[in-house]
Every structure is written in C-alpha cells, then in structure tokens.
Fold each of these.
Amino acid sequence: MTAIPSITLNDGVEIPQLGFGVWQVPPADVKVATQIAIEVGYRHIDTAEMYGNEVGVGEAVRESGLDRSEIFVTSKLNNGFHDPAQAMVAFEQSLSDLNIGYLDLFLIHWPMPLNGDFVATWKALEAMKATGKVRSIGVSNFLIHHLERVLAESDTVPSVNQIEVHPYLTQEPLRAFNTEHSIVTEAWSPLASGKIIGDAAISAIADRIGKSVAQVTLRWHLQRGDIIFPKSVTRSRIQENIEIFDFELAEADMLAISALNRDERTGPNPDDIN
Ligand SMILES: NC(=O)c1ccc[n+]([C@@H]2O[C@H](COP(=O)([O-])OP(=O)(O)OC[C@H]3O[C@@H](n4cnc5c(N)ncnc54)[C@H](OP(=O)(O)O)[C@@H]3O)[C@@H](O)[C@H]2O)c1
C-alpha cells in the first residue's frame, strides 16, 4: 500500500498530505466512495456540514475496521451558523452526524465578511478545541485581510487555510502569507473540478513521463507542499489519484505548470459570498 507523507501542523497534529474529498458526492453514494478510498489506502477524508453527507462518511470510517486514530477526518462549519452560540450547536451536530467520537480538524467554511464577524466565530472554534472534541482548528477561503484580523484579534493561529488552488489559480501571494504565518495551505479543487484534465500543456508532460494529467497535476501540488484531497466517485480514478508517490516532476515541468496560472476561480470570491 502507498505510503502517504504527513505534514505537521502548527499545533503538532499530523495530517496526511493526500486525502479524499467528498463535495458533490450524493449522500446515497458517499459511504461506498469513502469505503473504496479507504480500501485503496486513503487515510484522510474532507467533508463538510454543507455537503450533506457526513452520516455516510462516518459509517464508512466506523465500519473500516481501522482504529479511529488511523483516519484523519475534517469537517466545516456551515455558513448560516457563524453566530458563536449557533456555531457550537452546528459543531455538535457534525459530531453527532459523523458519530466517530471526535473530529481531527474543523474549519470555518467561508469567512462571510458581509454577514457577521468571523473573528467572533473563530473564537467559538477556539472554545470547541478546548472541549477536546476536535484536535485542530483552521479556516477555509480566508483572504489575507481576513487572516490579518484573526492573527491580530485572537490567541490561536489557524492550523490550515483551505483555499482554491490549481494550475489555473496558483494563489502565490496567499500561499506565501499562509507559510509566513505557519498556516498550512490546503488546496481545494486540485483538479479545478475536473477542468484541468483537458489541458494540452499538462497532457504533453503526462504523455512524456507516462502518467495521467490528473497524476501530474496532483504531483505538482504535492511538490509545492500543499495538502490535497481530490474527489472522485470512480474506483479507477480514486486508485489513480493515490498513485502519485513513485515519481517526481522535474523543476522545468513544475515551472511550466505554474506558468499556466490565469487567476481563474471555479468558485466564488470569498469576499462576495454572503
Ligand atoms: N472549502 C471549500 O470551500 C471547498 C470548495 C470546493 C471543494 N472543496 C474540497 O475539495 C475537494 C476536491 O475538489 P472538487 O471536488 O471540486 O474537485 P477536484 O478534485 O478538483 O475534481 C473532481 C472532478 O474531477 C474528476 N476526476 C477526479 N479524478 C480524476 C481522474 N483521475 N481523471 C479524470 N477525472 C478525474 C471527478 O470525476 P468523477 O467523480 O466523476 O470521477 C470530478 O468531476 C472537494 O471534494 C472538497 O472536499 C472545498
């Protein structure tokens, strides 16, 4: 089975650098997809209350036969629950739906700056961590000016910032800011939600080294040091996406892929979502 490297977060918690994402996996399918992922060697699952599929993820984890400590599970606070009291209720709901005892990582899903105070919400996550029911806390979709407020106005540096990153949106300034502040970048939609698969430049590299476009793209993320969790409901692709630890991209290929950046989001700008 493939050895997946771990990254140590700023609170000492270790997280596998490759995980399995379940956004847009229907609740009826998520248990089987997660079971396939665990069977082929994934040990990190990225879900969210917003995805509506925590129950099935929890079933797959519980029935895996693995010790709970062997699987890293992330969930996220849904957008309508930023008020600190409601955030605690939503956290307990995620714990109850997953039913796996504790969470490894809990994130504020979006900063929602037009709709309340994300620093107050962040302090609610600090209180969640103090309960011992979550090992690590972080944020998602935070821009530099959001992070600056969290860093200035609270006691805890987020362990991760989960943001959209792929070859068409390389996010250099935000990734550099994360690194400067000991915040690990998690790259969501690492395949640009599948759009990258038709890319001619990556395809040429993939053909030359005998790998798929998905494998080359995921390897590019790994060599940049980001955490990734590609999504697939297709067994062969779930398997393909974990087979990225037996080759290395040359520096010239890394640079060529980074040069594809066109600051193109597949999702919304975090300042606009309300
Ligand atoms: N924090 C946030 O706001 C946020 C937002 C978006 C996503 N995320 C996280 O990031 C995860 C991944 O992002 P994502 O789901 O948008 O997209 P992604 O992983 O970038 O791409 C998934 C798409 O690519 C296809 N695909 C996967 N592997 C492939 C392969 N080897 N060859 C060809 N096609 C392949 C999948 O198809 P099939 O499934 O049909 O095989 C699916 O259509 C999510 O599941 C979620 O955990 C977080």
Amino acid sequence: MSTQVLQRPALREGAFGNATHLSCRECGATHVLGPFYACPECFGPLEIAYDFPQVTRAQIEAGPANIWRYRSLLPVPTDIVDSPNMEPGFTRLLRAGNLGRDLGIDRLWVKDDSGNPTHSFKDRVVAIALSAARELGSKVFACPSTGNLANAVAAAGARAGIPTVVFIPHDLEVPKIVASAIYTNRLVAVRGNYDDVNRLASEIAGEEDGWAFVNVNVRPYYAEGSKTLGYEVAEQLGWRLPDNVVIPVASGSQLTKVDKAFQELIRLGLVEEKPYRIFGAQATGCSPVSAAFKDGHDVVRPVRPATIAKSLAIGNPADGPYVLDVARRTGGAVEDVDDELVREGIELLARTEGVFAETAGGVTVAVLRKLVETGQLDPDGDTVVFNTGDGLKTLDAVADRVGPAATIDPSYDAFVAAHVI
Ligand SMILES: Cc1ncc(COP(=O)(O)O)c(C=O)c1O
Ligand SMILES: [Zn+2]
C-alpha cells in the first residue's frame, strides 16, 4: 500500500467527520481526502475510508428524522445540521401486504424514497456532495444527470446559496426539465445521451478550477449518501437486516453502497450478522449489468440505452463490475424487464399500495415479480423493494394506460348509465 499526496485545498478540522482517507477499490492505495475520484496509480475508483467511533442505536435514534441521524457514519462535519441543506431521508418503509399477496411474498416492504424533498433518492447523495463542496471551498456545484440528480442539485444549490450548473440529455421528460429549471438559470440541455453528457462533464471538470461535479470529482463523497438507504431499512425493520433487497441499477453506485451500509452496521454491532441477498434491477433497453450477470462475465459491455426508464439509462455504468461482485457474493442476482412490464409494475404498485412510482420503481417491482416467478428470490424471506422516485415525474410512461372510467354529464342518471361501479 502506498500513500501518494495529491494536492488539495486546506481543510478545517473535522471537515469530513470520521472519514480518514480515500482508498482505491482496485489496488488499495490510500490518498488524502480531497476532490479526487480516480487513483493516480491505477485509475481505479476511490472510496471513503473511516475510523468509526463506537456508535449506539440510542445515539442514532436521538438524532434528527433525516439522514443526519447517521452523520457519524458519513464524511460530513458534526455541525452539518446547522448549514442550509435539503434535510433528506428517513422516508417511509411501508409494509406492503397487498403487493406481497399479489406476488406471493409473505413479508414485503416498500422503501419509498419518493418522499424526499425533490422526490427521489438523489437528495441523499447530493446532500453529502454539497457538504464536500462546501468544505473544499468549491465555487460551482454541478452535475451531469439523467434527470433526478438535476432536480436535487439545482434545489440544494439554491438553498445553500452556491451557483449550480446542471447538464442533462436534451430529450428528458418535461417534468424533470421544469423541476430543475425552476431552481437554476444554468440548466444546460446537451444534444446526446447521458453517457455523452457524462463525458462532457468529465472534460469540463478537468478544465475548470473550483467546480464540484457531484458525481464526478466529488463522487466518493456523493456515493456515501446511498448508504443511508441501507441504514434506514435496517433501523426501520427494528435494527435487523432483511433477507432480500431489490435495488434499481443505473451507474450501480446505490446498490453497492447499500451493501457497504449493511457491512458497516454488522461491524459496528448495530445489527446481528446474518446472510442477505442483494438483487439489481434494470430495464431491458439498458441492461448491461444484467447481461453481464447472466453471461457470467466480470466486465460490463457498454450499450446504447433505449428504454422509458430514463433515470436508469446509463449505458456505461461506472460501478457495474462492483454490482456484479455484490450480487454474486450475497447470492442475489441482476435481472431486467421490458418497458411494458415496467409500466405494469408502476400500475401494480399504485393499485396495491397507493404508491405512484417513477419508471425506476416500475423496474424494481416488475423485476421482483420476475425474480419470484423464476425462483431466483425466496418468497419466504423478509423482502424490501426500493421505489427511488416519484411517478409524477414520469407521467408519460403510464398516461395512455389509465384515465377516467367514464366522462359524463353532471347528473345521477348519467352516472348510473355509465356503470362505473
Ligand atoms: C430514481 C432513480 N433510481 C435509481 C437510480 C440509480 O442510481 P445509481 O446510479 O446509483 O445506480 C437513479 C439514477 O439516476 C435514479 O434516478
Ligand atoms: Zn489504485
């Protein structure tokens, strides 16, 4: 293991909480904390390493009803609660009896992250990236996005009073465009797909000084925000790990961080150690990780996305190989479903549990059904399925499936004649 000192701005004491350094996921080399994401020795991705103090359940439970209840496990300063931020997290974990009956699963929960401030799980990751940007003295807060991240970055920047520049593919869903542009006058639509936008962002990050690109040069910090989904699921189940979790995969970051969270909880003695299986969910029109899983490959071959699940449309997923590792190590799987099944998944969740998911939630619900039907997921275990975004952002996906049962004149006779009930 080597320690190479990379240049970084001066930091205040405790800027990154209990985080101690950056560590290369490939070669294990260590680096100082800073705006770095690639190992200078092997170009592998860097991630945050910690020296955790003893943390108790009671300490966590006494914290605020948002992600900052876990602040000692995140790369943020202890005074994070005092700086303006979106206060995301601690979203509901719904016992989903109706959906469970439909799918033949006895004990099923929906982790409903549509309840976050900008209606997706991205508020979690952005809150950590914002803290890093602040501590590093960044002058611009920026991102390439498939849509939800754009909403979260634009809103968080507005609230924190830091200028934002947000890059999106030009053909995103209208609600996602408007729900970004309302917070920032620097929304940039790029003629290309997400992978083109991401390449452009990396280029700009290399050219411009003092920009914090949340999922590029401060990605190690950003990614840690997804751990809070794992912490919350365990805490909300009564400090226990589920047997199965079904998680959407775009870049794959979220899935790998839920696994990291479960491992940390075990190591800290906050939950009992037990086996758990992590399942990844993709739309068939952008399923490079699922394809690699099924083919038994370790590398993920990039694809050109073509699916209604635009939030998951990353054809060259940065964390794809690590998703494969987690799914294989835990005995899970990565599966995919076509767009028609995604639409059915959205409708099924809405009709059974009153939760309106965006396309990513349609993907996880439909994949869950497929996993049960194909015997890949044991329906006798405690199972959690993630809904990571709000259906109001992707209305078009189901707009032609549902609508009024009848359009009638305002009279009782007309109502009766329509046979609605
Ligand atoms: C709603 C939603 N769910 C899940 C994901 C997947 O995130 P990741 O890139 O961490 O795999 C995204 C990514 O954009 C998203 O917008
Ligand atoms: Zn390395």
